[in-house]
Amino acid sequence: MAERFGYISRVQSFSACHRLHSVHLSDEENRSVYGKCNNPNGHGHNYKGESSSSTHPRIDPLTGMVMNLTDLKRCIEEVIMDPLDHKNLDRDVPYFSKVVSTTENVAVYIWDHMVKVLPPNVLYEIKIHETDKNIVMYRGE
């Protein structure tokens, strides 16, 4: 029987607040770059994160799975839900004390932590829906 390859994804919603503000810019530059998202009191999102399996995952002929979705769910709980859900990203997540909490950087954060808890070469893409219209994709490049 020929090897079969496939992709799996799991979508998880999480809520968090943040303020887009760079310590490398003046207050005026921050207001100019980030506009209303630089509000000193921050603002929130109901994010939707999608974790997808790797570029050439083999479908196991015995289980019929690329990987067990229960294992992927456990990894998402550990990497996304526990540290990010209902948190102030800038204050509650040490990573963002020095990194601007843009959705792009949230995707990088998730990628960097997911690759540590998933089997090697399994993670393909992290996709974050900040809003219905704003979506970021990151593939570890």
Automatic annotation (TrEMBL):
CDD domains noted in UniProt: PTPS
Any one GO CC term of the record: mitochondrion
Class of this enzyme: lyase
Single GO term (MF): metal ion binding
Cited Pfam families: PTPS
Cofactor entry: Zn(2+)
Protein origin, superkingdom: Eukaryota
Record's keyword terms, sorted: Lyase, Metal-binding, Tetrahydrobiopterin biosynthesis, Zinc
Ranges for region Disordered: 38-60
GO terms of biological process kind: tetrahydrobiopterin biosynthetic process
Entry's transmembrane regions: none
Gene3D superfamilies linked to this entry: 6-pyruvoyl tetrahydropterin synthase/QueD
Pathway recorded for this protein: Cofactor biosynthesis; tetrahydrobiopterin biosynthesis; tetrahydrobiopterin from 7,8-dihydroneopterin triphosphate: step 1/3
Assigned EC number: 4.2.3.12
Keyword Hydrolase on entry: no
Function noted in UniProt: Involved in the biosynthesis of tetrahydrobiopterin, an essential cofactor of aromatic amino acid hydroxylases. Catalyzes the transformation of 7,8-dihydroneopterin triphosphate into 6-pyruvoyl tetrahydropterin.
Family designation: Belongs to the PTPS family.
UniProt name for this protein: 6-pyruvoyl tetrahydrobiopterin synthase
